[in-house]
Write a structure and sequence with these properties.
The chain is mainly alpha-helical and about 120 residues long. The chain has 4 helices and no strands. The longest helix is centred in the first third of the chain and has 29 residues.
Protein backbone atom coordinates (compact mmCIF):
# COMPACT_ATOMS: atom_id res chain seq x y z
CA UNK A 1 0.00 0.00 0.00
CA UNK A 2 1.72 3.06 -1.22
CA UNK A 3 -0.72 5.66 0.07
CA UNK A 4 -3.80 5.79 2.29
CA UNK A 5 -6.53 8.13 1.11
CA UNK A 6 -8.22 10.10 3.86
CA UNK A 7 -11.87 9.82 2.79
CA UNK A 8 -13.22 12.12 5.49
CA UNK A 9 -10.90 14.93 4.41
CA UNK A 10 -11.82 14.33 0.78
CA UNK A 11 -15.56 14.42 1.57
CA UNK A 12 -15.07 17.58 3.62
CA UNK A 13 -13.29 19.25 0.70
CA UNK A 14 -16.01 18.16 -1.73
CA UNK A 15 -18.67 19.50 0.66
CA UNK A 16 -16.91 22.89 0.90
CA UNK A 17 -16.63 23.08 -2.89
CA UNK A 18 -20.32 22.19 -3.27
CA UNK A 19 -21.36 24.74 -0.62
CA UNK A 20 -19.33 27.43 -2.40
CA UNK A 21 -20.96 26.54 -5.71
CA UNK A 22 -24.44 26.68 -4.14
CA UNK A 23 -23.64 30.04 -2.49
CA UNK A 24 -22.50 31.51 -5.84
CA UNK A 25 -25.70 30.29 -7.52
CA UNK A 26 -27.83 31.80 -4.74
CA UNK A 27 -25.92 35.09 -4.98
CA UNK A 28 -26.44 35.20 -8.75
CA UNK A 29 -30.20 34.61 -8.42
CA UNK A 30 -30.52 37.14 -5.60
CA UNK A 31 -28.55 39.78 -7.52
CA UNK A 32 -30.45 39.24 -10.77
CA UNK A 33 -33.85 39.38 -9.14
CA UNK A 34 -33.11 42.36 -6.90
CA UNK A 35 -31.32 44.37 -9.60
CA UNK A 36 -34.08 43.74 -12.12
CA UNK A 37 -36.32 46.32 -10.51
CA UNK A 38 -33.89 49.16 -9.82
CA UNK A 39 -35.77 52.46 -10.34
CA UNK A 40 -32.63 54.11 -11.74
CA UNK A 41 -32.26 51.60 -14.59
CA UNK A 42 -34.50 50.82 -17.52
CA UNK A 43 -36.16 47.49 -16.78
CA UNK A 44 -36.09 46.59 -20.47
CA UNK A 45 -32.62 47.57 -21.74
CA UNK A 46 -30.74 48.21 -18.48
CA UNK A 47 -29.64 51.71 -19.46
CA UNK A 48 -29.48 54.32 -16.72
CA UNK A 49 -32.67 56.38 -16.44
CA UNK A 50 -31.95 60.10 -16.09
CA UNK A 51 -35.50 61.39 -16.55
CA UNK A 52 -38.01 58.94 -15.11
CA UNK A 53 -40.85 58.34 -17.54
CA UNK A 54 -44.40 58.03 -16.23
CA UNK A 55 -45.24 54.40 -15.53
CA UNK A 56 -47.64 52.83 -17.99
CA UNK A 57 -50.57 50.97 -16.44
CA UNK A 58 -49.87 47.77 -18.40
CA UNK A 59 -46.07 48.17 -18.19
CA UNK A 60 -45.48 49.22 -14.56
CA UNK A 61 -41.67 49.17 -14.72
CA UNK A 62 -39.13 51.98 -14.98
CA UNK A 63 -38.24 52.57 -18.64
CA UNK A 64 -35.85 54.91 -20.42
CA UNK A 65 -37.39 57.31 -22.95
CA UNK A 66 -36.70 55.04 -25.95
CA UNK A 67 -38.10 51.90 -24.32
CA UNK A 68 -41.07 53.90 -23.01
CA UNK A 69 -41.85 54.96 -26.59
CA UNK A 70 -41.52 51.35 -27.78
CA UNK A 71 -43.74 50.08 -24.95
CA UNK A 72 -46.34 52.72 -25.78
CA UNK A 73 -46.23 51.65 -29.44
CA UNK A 74 -46.61 48.02 -28.37
CA UNK A 75 -49.66 48.83 -26.23
CA UNK A 76 -51.24 50.78 -29.11
CA UNK A 77 -50.58 47.81 -31.42
CA UNK A 78 -52.24 45.46 -28.90
CA UNK A 79 -55.32 47.71 -29.06
CA UNK A 80 -55.36 47.43 -32.86
CA UNK A 81 -53.73 50.80 -33.58
CA UNK A 82 -50.73 49.78 -35.68
CA UNK A 83 -48.13 52.31 -36.76
CA UNK A 84 -45.87 52.45 -39.82
CA UNK A 85 -42.54 51.68 -38.11
CA UNK A 86 -41.00 48.86 -40.14
CA UNK A 87 -39.59 46.87 -37.20
CA UNK A 88 -42.91 46.77 -35.34
CA UNK A 89 -43.61 43.26 -36.58
CA UNK A 90 -45.39 40.32 -34.97
CA UNK A 91 -42.00 39.10 -33.71
CA UNK A 92 -41.39 42.48 -32.09
CA UNK A 93 -44.82 42.33 -30.41
CA UNK A 94 -44.14 38.75 -29.27
CA UNK A 95 -40.87 39.95 -27.72
CA UNK A 96 -42.77 42.56 -25.68
CA UNK A 97 -45.45 40.04 -24.67
CA UNK A 98 -42.79 37.55 -23.55
CA UNK A 99 -40.82 40.22 -21.70
CA UNK A 100 -43.95 41.34 -19.85
CA UNK A 101 -44.74 37.71 -18.96
CA UNK A 102 -41.17 37.28 -17.69
CA UNK A 103 -41.37 40.45 -15.59
CA UNK A 104 -44.69 39.32 -14.11
CA UNK A 105 -43.26 35.87 -13.28
CA UNK A 106 -40.13 37.44 -11.79
CA UNK A 107 -42.31 39.71 -9.64
CA UNK A 108 -44.25 36.72 -8.33
CA UNK A 109 -40.99 34.90 -7.60
CA UNK A 110 -39.67 37.96 -5.73
CA UNK A 111 -42.76 37.76 -3.50
CA UNK A 112 -42.40 34.03 -2.82
CA UNK A 113 -41.32 32.93 0.67
CA UNK A 114 -38.41 30.99 -0.84
CA UNK A 115 -37.00 34.09 -2.52
CA UNK A 116 -37.46 36.15 0.63
CA UNK A 117 -35.56 33.47 2.55
CA UNK A 118 -32.84 33.51 -0.11
CA UNK A 119 -32.51 37.30 0.20
CA UNK A 120 -32.37 37.03 3.98
CA UNK A 121 -29.61 34.41 3.80
CA UNK A 122 -27.80 36.36 1.07
CA UNK A 123 -27.74 39.54 3.17
CA UNK A 124 -26.08 37.79 6.14
Amino acid sequence: MAEVIDLSRRKSKERRIDEGRQRRKAEAVAAAMSCGICPRRCAFCGQGVEQPQPLLVKVPYPLCASCHDEATAFLRREEGLADDVFWHTEQWAAMWRNWLAFMEAAGKFRGAPEFLRLMQEYSQ
